[in-house]
Amino acid sequence: MILNQHTQALRVQVEDLVKDLQNLSQEIGHKDLAATVGELRNRMGEPFMFVIVGEVKAGKSSFVNALLQADREICAVAPQPMTDTIQQILYGEKEEVIVVNPYLKKILLPVDILRDIAIVDTPGTNSIVERHQEITENFIPASDLVIFVFEAKNPYRQSAWDFFDFIHRDWHKKIIFILQQKDLMSPEDLAVNERGLYDYAVKKGLSEPSIFTTSAKAELEHRFDQSGFSQVRDYIRTHVTGGRGAALKLKNNLETSRHILDRIRQDLDTRAEQFKADTVFREDISQTLDNQERKSKHQAGQLIENLLNGYDRITRNIGEELSAGLSFPSMLLRSVKGIFRKQASIRDWLDELTKKLELNLNGELKIKLNEGVVDLADSVQQMAKMIDLKIRAGSTVVKSDSYIFEDIAGKRAIVLRELQEAFSRFMSRSENFTDERLFPDNATVSPNIAAGSGAAIIGMILAGVTKITVLDITGGVLTGLGMLFAGVTAGLQRRKIINGYDEEIARGRARMAEELDTKLHAYVHVIKGRISENFSDLDAMLANEEAQIALFNDQYGVLSRRVAEIDGGLSV
Prior knowledge:
Strand content: 5-15%
Number of strands: 8
Order of helices and strands: HHEHEEEEHEHEHEHHHHHHHHHHH
Number of helices: 17
Radius of gyration: 47 Å
Structural class: alpha/beta
Strand order of the largest sheet: 3-4-2-5-1-6-7-8
Distance between the termini: 21 Å
Largest sheet: 8 strands, mixed
Number of domains: 2
Shape: rod-shaped
Protein backbone atom coordinates (compact mmCIF):
# COMPACT_ATOMS: atom_id res chain seq x y z
CA MET A 1 0.00 0.00 0.00
CA ILE A 2 1.25 3.45 -0.91
CA LEU A 3 1.34 5.82 2.08
CA ASN A 4 0.44 9.46 1.74
CA GLN A 5 3.27 11.94 2.00
CA HIS A 6 2.38 13.06 5.55
CA THR A 7 2.17 9.50 6.91
CA GLN A 8 5.40 8.54 5.14
CA ALA A 9 7.21 11.48 6.76
CA LEU A 10 5.88 10.43 10.19
CA ARG A 11 6.96 6.85 9.55
CA VAL A 12 10.52 8.00 8.86
CA GLN A 13 10.44 9.96 12.13
CA VAL A 14 9.19 6.93 14.06
CA GLU A 15 11.89 4.73 12.50
CA ASP A 16 14.57 7.25 13.53
CA LEU A 17 13.05 7.41 17.00
CA VAL A 18 13.13 3.63 17.41
CA LYS A 19 16.73 3.54 16.19
CA ASP A 20 17.72 6.10 18.83
CA LEU A 21 15.74 4.20 21.46
CA GLN A 22 17.74 1.10 20.64
CA ASN A 23 21.00 3.04 20.92
CA LEU A 24 19.97 4.48 24.28
CA SER A 25 18.92 1.05 25.59
CA GLN A 26 22.32 -0.32 24.61
CA GLU A 27 24.18 2.62 26.16
CA ILE A 28 22.41 2.30 29.49
CA GLY A 29 23.32 -1.40 29.56
CA HIS A 30 19.81 -2.85 29.42
CA LYS A 31 20.44 -5.81 27.13
CA ASP A 32 16.91 -7.25 27.22
CA LEU A 33 15.30 -3.93 26.39
CA ALA A 34 17.82 -3.28 23.61
CA ALA A 35 16.96 -6.67 22.08
CA THR A 36 13.25 -5.87 22.34
CA VAL A 37 13.68 -2.53 20.60
CA GLY A 38 15.77 -4.27 17.96
CA GLU A 39 12.87 -6.66 17.28
CA LEU A 40 10.49 -3.72 16.98
CA ARG A 41 12.86 -1.96 14.61
CA ASN A 42 13.27 -5.05 12.42
CA ARG A 43 9.51 -5.53 12.10
CA MET A 44 8.44 -1.97 11.43
CA GLY A 45 8.39 -2.59 7.68
CA GLU A 46 6.32 -5.78 7.97
CA PRO A 47 2.54 -5.88 7.58
CA PHE A 48 0.14 -5.41 10.48
CA MET A 49 1.13 -8.24 12.80
CA PHE A 50 -1.18 -10.54 14.72
CA VAL A 51 0.44 -12.57 17.48
CA ILE A 52 -1.51 -15.65 18.49
CA VAL A 53 -0.92 -16.64 22.12
CA GLY A 54 -2.44 -19.08 24.58
CA GLU A 55 -1.75 -22.29 26.41
CA VAL A 56 -0.69 -25.55 24.85
CA LYS A 57 -3.66 -27.32 23.23
CA ALA A 58 -5.88 -24.23 23.45
CA GLY A 59 -6.43 -24.58 19.68
CA LYS A 60 -4.15 -21.80 18.43
CA SER A 61 -2.83 -23.65 15.36
CA SER A 62 -6.30 -24.79 14.37
CA PHE A 63 -7.51 -21.22 14.70
CA VAL A 64 -4.76 -19.97 12.36
CA ASN A 65 -5.48 -22.66 9.75
CA ALA A 66 -9.16 -21.78 9.80
CA LEU A 67 -8.55 -18.02 9.69
CA LEU A 68 -6.42 -18.45 6.57
CA GLN A 69 -9.10 -20.71 5.05
CA ALA A 70 -6.40 -23.21 4.20
CA ASP A 71 -7.49 -26.47 2.68
CA ARG A 72 -4.60 -28.14 4.48
CA GLU A 73 -2.67 -27.71 7.71
CA ILE A 74 -0.35 -24.73 7.56
CA CYS A 75 0.21 -24.93 11.30
CA ALA A 76 0.46 -28.57 12.38
CA VAL A 77 -2.33 -29.88 14.57
CA ALA A 78 -2.19 -33.15 16.54
CA PRO A 79 -3.45 -34.65 19.82
CA GLN A 80 -0.10 -33.92 21.42
CA PRO A 81 1.50 -30.42 21.45
CA MET A 82 2.98 -29.80 17.99
CA THR A 83 4.03 -26.16 17.84
CA ASP A 84 7.60 -26.43 19.05
CA THR A 85 8.70 -23.28 17.23
CA ILE A 86 7.36 -19.82 16.61
CA GLN A 87 5.88 -19.68 13.12
CA GLN A 88 5.68 -16.28 11.42
CA ILE A 89 3.28 -16.48 8.47
CA LEU A 90 3.78 -13.85 5.77
CA TYR A 91 2.65 -13.23 2.22
CA GLY A 92 4.81 -14.64 -0.55
CA GLU A 93 4.33 -15.15 -4.28
CA LYS A 94 5.22 -18.77 -3.77
CA GLU A 95 5.00 -21.06 -0.80
CA GLU A 96 8.27 -21.31 1.12
CA VAL A 97 9.49 -22.22 4.60
CA ILE A 98 12.55 -20.35 5.92
CA VAL A 99 14.17 -21.69 9.10
CA VAL A 100 15.56 -18.62 10.89
CA ASN A 101 16.87 -20.55 13.90
CA PRO A 102 15.83 -23.64 15.91
CA TYR A 103 13.09 -21.62 17.58
CA LEU A 104 11.74 -19.55 14.68
CA LYS A 105 10.67 -20.21 11.11
CA LYS A 106 8.96 -18.06 8.49
CA ILE A 107 6.20 -19.48 6.30
CA LEU A 108 5.53 -17.58 3.06
CA LEU A 109 2.12 -18.20 1.46
CA PRO A 110 0.30 -16.71 -1.55
CA VAL A 111 -2.83 -15.96 0.53
CA ASP A 112 -4.54 -12.61 -0.12
CA ILE A 113 -5.29 -11.78 3.52
CA LEU A 114 -1.54 -11.94 4.20
CA ARG A 115 -1.03 -8.91 1.98
CA ASP A 116 -2.42 -6.82 4.83
CA ILE A 117 -1.53 -8.86 7.89
CA ALA A 118 1.20 -11.16 9.21
CA ILE A 119 0.38 -13.90 11.67
CA VAL A 120 2.69 -15.23 14.37
CA ASP A 121 1.70 -18.58 15.84
CA THR A 122 3.48 -19.19 19.13
CA PRO A 123 4.15 -22.14 21.45
CA GLY A 124 1.95 -22.42 24.51
CA THR A 125 2.42 -19.96 27.34
CA ASN A 126 2.91 -22.98 29.59
CA SER A 127 5.42 -24.58 27.19
CA ILE A 128 8.04 -26.69 28.92
CA VAL A 129 10.74 -25.22 26.68
CA GLU A 130 11.85 -22.02 28.41
CA ARG A 131 13.28 -20.51 25.25
CA HIS A 132 9.83 -20.50 23.64
CA GLN A 133 8.34 -18.01 26.06
CA GLU A 134 11.42 -15.81 25.89
CA ILE A 135 11.05 -15.52 22.10
CA THR A 136 7.28 -15.10 22.36
CA GLU A 137 7.89 -12.15 24.68
CA ASN A 138 10.24 -10.67 22.10
CA PHE A 139 7.43 -10.70 19.54
CA ILE A 140 4.84 -9.09 21.80
CA PRO A 141 6.34 -5.56 21.85
CA ALA A 142 6.42 -5.53 18.04
CA SER A 143 2.88 -6.85 17.70
CA ASP A 144 -0.05 -4.75 16.50
CA LEU A 145 -2.80 -7.01 17.77
CA VAL A 146 -2.59 -9.88 20.25
CA ILE A 147 -5.14 -12.64 19.77
CA PHE A 148 -5.45 -14.53 23.04
CA VAL A 149 -6.82 -18.02 22.40
CA PHE A 150 -8.45 -19.90 25.27
CA GLU A 151 -9.88 -23.36 25.33
CA ALA A 152 -13.61 -22.67 25.52
CA LYS A 153 -14.01 -25.25 28.29
CA ASN A 154 -11.52 -23.54 30.61
CA PRO A 155 -10.54 -19.89 30.06
CA TYR A 156 -9.13 -19.50 33.58
CA ARG A 157 -5.73 -21.18 33.50
CA GLN A 158 -3.27 -19.18 35.64
CA SER A 159 -0.25 -19.37 33.33
CA ALA A 160 -2.29 -17.84 30.50
CA TRP A 161 -3.44 -14.95 32.66
CA ASP A 162 0.07 -14.40 33.97
CA PHE A 163 1.12 -13.95 30.36
CA PHE A 164 -1.85 -11.64 29.83
CA ASP A 165 -0.51 -9.46 32.66
CA PHE A 166 2.82 -9.21 30.84
CA ILE A 167 1.12 -8.17 27.60
CA HIS A 168 -1.34 -5.73 29.11
CA ARG A 169 0.61 -4.27 32.04
CA ASP A 170 4.02 -4.01 30.45
CA TRP A 171 3.10 -3.22 26.84
CA HIS A 172 -0.56 -2.10 26.80
CA LYS A 173 -1.17 -4.02 23.61
CA LYS A 174 -4.55 -4.25 21.92
CA ILE A 175 -5.96 -7.68 22.82
CA ILE A 176 -8.92 -9.68 21.58
CA PHE A 177 -10.02 -12.99 23.07
CA ILE A 178 -10.93 -16.17 21.24
CA LEU A 179 -12.85 -18.97 22.93
CA GLN A 180 -11.81 -21.83 20.64
CA GLN A 181 -13.39 -25.27 20.29
CA LYS A 182 -16.86 -23.99 21.10
CA ASP A 183 -18.32 -27.03 19.34
CA LEU A 184 -17.28 -29.11 22.35
CA MET A 185 -19.65 -27.20 24.67
CA SER A 186 -23.34 -26.62 25.02
CA PRO A 187 -24.54 -23.09 24.16
CA GLU A 188 -25.49 -22.53 27.79
CA ASP A 189 -22.07 -23.51 29.19
CA LEU A 190 -20.36 -21.51 26.46
CA ALA A 191 -22.36 -18.41 27.39
CA VAL A 192 -21.34 -18.86 31.05
CA ASN A 193 -17.64 -19.08 30.18
CA GLU A 194 -17.91 -16.17 27.76
CA ARG A 195 -19.42 -14.01 30.49
CA GLY A 196 -16.85 -15.23 32.99
CA LEU A 197 -14.01 -14.36 30.60
CA TYR A 198 -15.49 -10.90 30.04
CA ASP A 199 -15.78 -10.17 33.76
CA TYR A 200 -12.27 -11.48 34.47
CA ALA A 201 -10.76 -9.37 31.68
CA VAL A 202 -12.52 -6.28 33.03
CA LYS A 203 -11.19 -7.09 36.47
CA LYS A 204 -7.73 -7.31 34.92
CA GLY A 205 -8.03 -3.79 33.56
CA LEU A 206 -9.57 -4.07 30.10
CA SER A 207 -12.55 -1.89 29.25
CA GLU A 208 -15.12 -3.56 27.00
CA PRO A 209 -13.01 -6.57 26.01
CA SER A 210 -13.70 -8.08 22.58
CA ILE A 211 -14.49 -11.80 22.77
CA PHE A 212 -15.20 -14.16 19.88
CA THR A 213 -16.30 -17.78 20.13
CA THR A 214 -15.04 -20.00 17.30
CA SER A 215 -14.87 -23.54 16.07
CA ALA A 216 -11.97 -24.16 13.72
CA LYS A 217 -13.41 -27.59 13.04
CA ALA A 218 -16.69 -26.13 11.79
CA GLU A 219 -14.86 -23.55 9.67
CA LEU A 220 -12.65 -26.13 8.02
CA GLU A 221 -15.74 -28.28 7.38
CA HIS A 222 -17.33 -25.26 5.68
CA ARG A 223 -20.04 -24.90 8.32
CA PHE A 224 -19.43 -21.18 8.23
CA ASP A 225 -22.67 -20.23 9.97
CA GLN A 226 -21.57 -22.26 13.02
CA SER A 227 -17.83 -21.51 13.12
CA GLY A 228 -17.88 -17.90 14.35
CA PHE A 229 -15.02 -16.92 12.04
CA SER A 230 -17.13 -14.46 10.07
CA GLN A 231 -17.26 -12.20 13.14
CA VAL A 232 -13.47 -12.40 13.48
CA ARG A 233 -12.98 -11.48 9.84
CA ASP A 234 -15.44 -8.61 10.17
CA TYR A 235 -13.35 -7.29 13.07
CA ILE A 236 -10.20 -7.53 10.94
CA ARG A 237 -11.86 -5.75 8.01
CA THR A 238 -13.17 -3.02 10.30
CA HIS A 239 -9.95 -2.39 12.26
CA VAL A 240 -7.11 -3.47 10.01
CA THR A 241 -7.65 -3.94 6.31
CA GLY A 242 -9.06 -1.46 3.85
CA GLY A 243 -6.16 0.98 4.20
CA ARG A 244 -6.24 1.33 7.98
CA GLY A 245 -3.50 -1.14 8.86
CA ALA A 246 -0.50 1.05 7.94
CA ALA A 247 -1.72 4.03 9.96
CA LEU A 248 -2.65 1.79 12.89
CA LYS A 249 0.75 0.12 12.77
CA LEU A 250 2.44 3.51 12.83
CA LYS A 251 0.41 4.50 15.89
CA ASN A 252 1.17 1.15 17.52
CA ASN A 253 4.89 1.61 16.90
CA LEU A 254 4.78 5.07 18.43
CA GLU A 255 2.78 3.81 21.40
CA THR A 256 5.26 0.97 21.88
CA SER A 257 8.08 3.52 21.70
CA ARG A 258 6.33 5.50 24.42
CA HIS A 259 6.14 2.42 26.64
CA ILE A 260 9.80 1.68 25.97
CA LEU A 261 10.59 5.22 27.06
CA ASP A 262 8.52 4.62 30.20
CA ARG A 263 10.61 1.52 30.88
CA ILE A 264 13.78 3.54 30.38
CA ARG A 265 12.43 6.20 32.73
CA GLN A 266 11.72 3.58 35.38
CA ASP A 267 15.16 2.09 34.91
CA LEU A 268 16.84 5.49 35.09
CA ASP A 269 14.89 6.23 38.27
CA THR A 270 16.05 2.91 39.72
CA ARG A 271 19.59 3.73 38.69
CA ALA A 272 19.31 7.20 40.25
CA GLU A 273 17.94 5.63 43.42
CA GLN A 274 20.91 3.27 43.53
CA PHE A 275 23.31 6.16 42.92
CA LYS A 276 21.68 8.14 45.73
CA ALA A 277 21.98 5.17 48.09
CA ASP A 278 25.65 4.68 47.13
CA THR A 279 26.32 8.40 47.54
CA VAL A 280 24.68 8.45 50.97
CA PHE A 281 26.77 5.41 51.89
CA ARG A 282 29.95 7.13 50.71
CA GLU A 283 29.07 10.36 52.52
CA ASP A 284 28.40 8.36 55.67
CA ILE A 285 31.85 6.79 55.34
CA SER A 286 33.44 10.23 54.93
CA GLN A 287 31.49 11.67 57.86
CA THR A 288 32.39 8.71 60.05
CA LEU A 289 36.06 9.13 59.16
CA ASP A 290 35.89 12.85 59.91
CA ASN A 291 34.19 12.24 63.26
CA GLN A 292 36.68 9.55 64.23
CA GLU A 293 39.56 11.75 63.12
CA ARG A 294 38.30 14.49 65.42
CA LYS A 295 38.03 12.03 68.30
CA SER A 296 41.51 10.66 67.67
CA LYS A 297 42.97 14.15 67.39
CA HIS A 298 41.25 15.08 70.66
CA GLN A 299 42.86 12.02 72.22
CA ALA A 300 46.19 13.10 70.77
CA GLY A 301 45.65 16.52 72.33
CA GLN A 302 45.05 14.94 75.72
CA LEU A 303 48.24 12.91 75.33
CA ILE A 304 50.21 16.04 74.46
CA GLU A 305 48.75 17.85 77.46
CA ASN A 306 49.71 14.94 79.72
CA LEU A 307 53.26 14.91 78.36
CA LEU A 308 53.63 18.66 78.77
CA ASN A 309 52.36 18.47 82.35
CA GLY A 310 55.04 15.89 83.06
CA TYR A 311 57.64 18.06 81.35
CA ASP A 312 56.57 21.07 83.40
CA ARG A 313 56.75 19.20 86.70
CA ILE A 314 60.17 17.66 86.03
CA THR A 315 61.78 20.85 84.77
CA ARG A 316 60.22 22.85 87.61
CA ASN A 317 61.73 20.49 90.19
CA ILE A 318 65.13 20.70 88.53
CA GLY A 319 64.78 24.46 88.33
CA GLU A 320 64.05 24.68 92.06
CA GLU A 321 67.06 22.48 92.77
CA LEU A 322 69.20 24.67 90.52
CA SER A 323 67.96 27.81 92.23
CA ALA A 324 68.70 26.43 95.65
CA GLY A 325 72.11 25.20 94.55
CA LEU A 326 73.05 28.64 93.24
CA SER A 327 72.55 30.31 96.60
CA PHE A 328 75.69 31.95 98.09
CA PRO A 329 76.15 29.43 100.92
CA SER A 330 75.76 26.46 98.56
CA MET A 331 78.11 27.86 95.98
CA LEU A 332 80.68 28.74 98.64
CA LEU A 333 80.43 25.31 100.16
CA ARG A 334 80.89 23.58 96.78
CA SER A 335 83.83 25.86 95.95
CA VAL A 336 85.59 25.03 99.20
CA LYS A 337 84.87 21.33 98.84
CA GLY A 338 86.04 21.46 95.27
CA ILE A 339 89.50 22.49 96.47
CA PHE A 340 89.87 19.18 98.20
CA ARG A 341 87.48 16.89 96.28
CA LYS A 342 86.89 17.26 92.62
CA GLN A 343 83.65 15.26 92.66
CA ALA A 344 82.04 17.86 94.90
CA SER A 345 82.89 20.79 92.65
CA ILE A 346 80.37 23.05 90.98
CA ARG A 347 81.15 21.41 87.68
CA ASP A 348 80.35 17.95 89.10
CA TRP A 349 77.12 19.17 90.61
CA LEU A 350 76.00 20.69 87.34
CA ASP A 351 76.86 17.49 85.45
CA GLU A 352 74.82 15.49 87.92
CA LEU A 353 71.91 17.92 87.52
CA THR A 354 72.09 17.53 83.75
CA LYS A 355 71.97 13.75 84.00
CA LYS A 356 69.12 13.90 86.50
CA LEU A 357 67.05 16.06 84.19
CA GLU A 358 67.72 13.81 81.24
CA LEU A 359 67.01 10.65 83.25
CA ASN A 360 63.74 11.96 84.65
CA LEU A 361 62.48 13.18 81.29
CA ASN A 362 63.45 9.98 79.49
CA GLY A 363 62.12 7.81 82.29
CA GLU A 364 58.70 9.37 82.71
CA LEU A 365 57.86 10.97 79.38
CA LYS A 366 59.01 8.01 77.33
CA ILE A 367 56.64 5.71 79.22
CA LYS A 368 53.75 8.17 78.92
CA LEU A 369 54.37 8.67 75.24
CA ASN A 370 54.61 4.97 74.46
CA GLU A 371 51.42 4.19 76.36
CA GLY A 372 49.65 7.16 74.81
CA VAL A 373 50.65 6.22 71.27
CA VAL A 374 49.34 2.68 71.84
CA ASP A 375 46.00 4.12 73.01
CA LEU A 376 45.96 6.46 70.05
CA ALA A 377 46.62 3.56 67.67
CA ASP A 378 43.68 1.72 69.23
CA SER A 379 41.50 4.76 68.57
CA VAL A 380 42.62 4.88 64.96
CA GLN A 381 41.98 1.17 64.59
CA GLN A 382 38.49 1.76 65.94
CA MET A 383 38.05 4.24 63.11
CA ALA A 384 38.85 1.49 60.63
CA LYS A 385 36.62 -1.04 62.40
CA MET A 386 33.63 1.28 62.16
CA ILE A 387 34.25 1.72 58.43
CA ASP A 388 34.54 -2.04 58.02
CA LEU A 389 31.14 -2.54 59.69
CA LYS A 390 29.54 0.08 57.46
CA ILE A 391 30.94 -1.58 54.34
CA ARG A 392 29.48 -4.92 55.39
CA ALA A 393 26.12 -3.36 56.17
CA GLY A 394 25.92 -1.37 52.92
CA SER A 395 22.42 -1.37 51.38
CA THR A 396 21.58 -2.50 47.85
CA VAL A 397 18.70 -1.12 45.78
CA VAL A 398 19.23 -3.16 42.63
CA LYS A 399 18.90 -6.83 43.55
CA SER A 400 21.59 -9.21 42.44
CA ASP A 401 19.16 -11.06 40.15
CA SER A 402 17.74 -7.93 38.53
CA TYR A 403 17.86 -7.65 34.74
CA ILE A 404 17.99 -3.87 35.02
CA PHE A 405 21.33 -2.51 33.91
CA GLU A 406 23.06 -5.85 34.08
CA ASP A 407 26.47 -4.43 33.19
CA ILE A 408 26.22 -1.55 35.66
CA ALA A 409 24.85 -3.75 38.44
CA GLY A 410 27.61 -6.27 37.76
CA LYS A 411 30.37 -3.67 37.83
CA ARG A 412 28.94 -2.15 40.99
CA ALA A 413 28.84 -5.56 42.67
CA ILE A 414 32.48 -6.15 41.70
CA VAL A 415 33.57 -2.77 43.08
CA LEU A 416 31.79 -3.35 46.39
CA ARG A 417 33.07 -6.92 46.67
CA GLU A 418 36.63 -5.79 45.98
CA LEU A 419 36.17 -2.98 48.52
CA GLN A 420 35.15 -5.50 51.17
CA GLU A 421 38.03 -7.81 50.32
CA ALA A 422 40.59 -5.01 50.16
CA PHE A 423 39.40 -3.55 53.44
CA SER A 424 39.53 -6.94 55.13
CA ARG A 425 43.16 -7.24 54.03
CA PHE A 426 43.81 -3.68 55.18
CA MET A 427 42.39 -4.45 58.63
CA SER A 428 44.52 -7.58 59.00
CA ARG A 429 47.86 -5.82 58.46
CA SER A 430 49.24 -4.10 61.53
CA GLU A 431 51.69 -2.06 59.47
CA ASN A 432 48.75 -0.09 58.11
CA PHE A 433 48.30 1.36 61.59
CA THR A 434 51.93 2.36 62.16
CA ASP A 435 53.99 5.14 60.65
CA GLU A 436 57.79 4.95 60.71
CA ARG A 437 57.91 8.64 59.99
CA LEU A 438 56.10 9.34 63.24
CA PHE A 439 58.77 8.49 65.83
CA PRO A 440 61.83 7.08 64.10
CA ASP A 441 63.67 6.52 67.39
CA ASN A 442 61.21 4.09 68.96
CA ALA A 443 58.75 6.77 69.98
CA THR A 444 61.27 8.77 72.07
CA VAL A 445 61.03 12.03 70.23
CA SER A 446 59.68 14.06 73.12
CA PRO A 447 62.30 12.90 75.66
CA ASN A 448 64.97 13.66 73.08
CA ILE A 449 63.64 17.14 72.65
CA ALA A 450 63.41 17.68 76.37
CA ALA A 451 66.74 16.09 77.19
CA GLY A 452 68.40 18.00 74.41
CA SER A 453 67.00 21.21 75.75
CA GLY A 454 68.05 20.30 79.27
CA ALA A 455 71.60 19.55 78.16
CA ALA A 456 71.76 22.86 76.36
CA ILE A 457 70.46 24.63 79.45
CA ILE A 458 72.90 22.98 81.80
CA GLY A 459 75.71 23.61 79.35
CA MET A 460 74.81 27.28 79.35
CA ILE A 461 74.82 27.39 83.16
CA LEU A 462 78.13 25.54 83.34
CA ALA A 463 79.72 27.95 80.88
CA GLY A 464 78.40 30.93 82.79
CA VAL A 465 79.69 29.73 86.13
CA THR A 466 83.14 28.76 84.86
CA LYS A 467 83.53 32.15 83.29
CA ILE A 468 82.86 34.06 86.49
CA THR A 469 84.56 31.81 89.00
CA VAL A 470 88.24 31.82 89.72
CA LEU A 471 88.83 28.11 89.73
CA ASP A 472 92.08 26.41 88.99
CA ILE A 473 90.69 23.24 87.54
CA THR A 474 94.09 21.96 86.50
CA GLY A 475 95.58 21.63 89.87
CA GLY A 476 95.15 24.42 91.64
CA VAL A 477 93.96 25.53 94.86
CA LEU A 478 91.69 28.52 95.17
CA THR A 479 92.92 31.17 97.49
CA GLY A 480 90.55 32.40 100.13
CA LEU A 481 90.00 35.56 98.16
CA GLY A 482 89.34 33.57 95.07
CA MET A 483 86.77 31.41 96.80
CA LEU A 484 85.03 34.42 98.25
CA PHE A 485 84.98 36.15 94.88
CA ALA A 486 83.67 33.07 93.18
CA GLY A 487 80.89 32.66 95.70
CA VAL A 488 79.91 36.32 95.68
CA THR A 489 80.00 36.52 91.86
CA ALA A 490 77.87 33.38 91.41
CA GLY A 491 75.38 34.74 93.90
CA LEU A 492 75.13 38.02 92.06
CA GLN A 493 74.51 36.13 88.73
CA ARG A 494 71.92 33.78 90.25
CA ARG A 495 68.84 35.59 88.90
CA LYS A 496 70.30 35.81 85.43
CA ILE A 497 71.09 32.11 85.41
CA ILE A 498 67.62 31.15 86.69
CA ASN A 499 65.97 33.41 84.12
CA GLY A 500 68.08 31.85 81.42
CA TYR A 501 67.06 28.40 82.59
CA ASP A 502 63.38 29.32 82.58
CA GLU A 503 63.60 30.84 79.11
CA GLU A 504 65.37 27.82 77.68
CA ILE A 505 62.90 25.45 79.33
CA ALA A 506 60.02 27.43 77.84
CA ARG A 507 61.58 27.27 74.38
CA GLY A 508 62.11 23.52 74.77
CA ARG A 509 58.50 23.11 75.87
CA ALA A 510 57.23 25.01 72.83
CA ARG A 511 59.37 22.92 70.49
CA MET A 512 58.16 19.70 72.10
CA ALA A 513 54.50 20.80 71.96
CA GLU A 514 54.82 21.80 68.31
CA GLU A 515 56.53 18.60 67.23
CA LEU A 516 54.17 16.37 69.21
CA ASP A 517 51.16 18.19 67.82
CA THR A 518 52.47 17.94 64.27
CA LYS A 519 53.49 14.31 64.45
CA LEU A 520 50.56 12.91 66.44
CA HIS A 521 47.97 14.69 64.33
CA ALA A 522 49.88 13.73 61.19
CA TYR A 523 49.71 10.10 62.36
CA VAL A 524 45.92 10.26 62.63
CA HIS A 525 45.67 11.97 59.25
CA VAL A 526 48.01 9.46 57.57
CA ILE A 527 45.97 6.47 58.77
CA LYS A 528 42.73 8.19 57.77
CA GLY A 529 44.23 8.73 54.33
CA ARG A 530 45.16 5.06 54.08
CA ILE A 531 41.59 4.09 54.95
CA SER A 532 40.22 6.53 52.37
CA GLU A 533 42.47 5.11 49.65
CA ASN A 534 40.42 1.91 49.77
CA PHE A 535 37.48 3.86 48.33
CA SER A 536 39.22 5.15 45.22
CA ASP A 537 37.50 2.66 42.88
CA LEU A 538 34.10 3.35 44.42
CA ASP A 539 34.68 7.09 44.10
CA ALA A 540 35.63 6.67 40.45
CA MET A 541 32.52 4.55 39.84
CA LEU A 542 30.26 7.12 41.49
CA ALA A 543 31.78 9.99 39.51
CA ASN A 544 31.28 8.08 36.28
CA GLU A 545 27.75 7.05 37.27
CA GLU A 546 26.78 10.63 38.05
CA ALA A 547 27.95 11.76 34.63
CA GLN A 548 26.22 8.83 32.91
CA ILE A 549 22.88 9.41 34.63
CA ALA A 550 22.95 13.09 33.71
CA LEU A 551 23.74 12.22 30.08
CA PHE A 552 20.99 9.58 29.84
CA ASN A 553 18.45 11.89 31.46
CA ASP A 554 19.22 14.48 28.78
CA GLN A 555 18.80 11.87 26.02
CA TYR A 556 15.55 10.67 27.58
CA GLY A 557 14.23 14.23 27.62
CA VAL A 558 15.05 14.70 23.93
CA LEU A 559 13.34 11.42 22.94
CA SER A 560 10.27 12.21 25.05
CA ARG A 561 9.84 15.53 23.26
CA ARG A 562 10.20 13.78 19.89
CA VAL A 563 7.48 11.27 20.82
CA ALA A 564 5.15 14.12 21.76
CA GLU A 565 5.87 15.94 18.49
CA ILE A 566 5.23 12.81 16.36
CA ASP A 567 2.07 12.05 18.33
CA GLY A 568 0.86 15.55 17.58
CA GLY A 569 1.54 14.95 13.88
CA LEU A 570 -0.44 11.69 13.92
CA SER A 571 -3.41 13.48 15.45
CA VAL A 572 -3.56 15.99 12.58
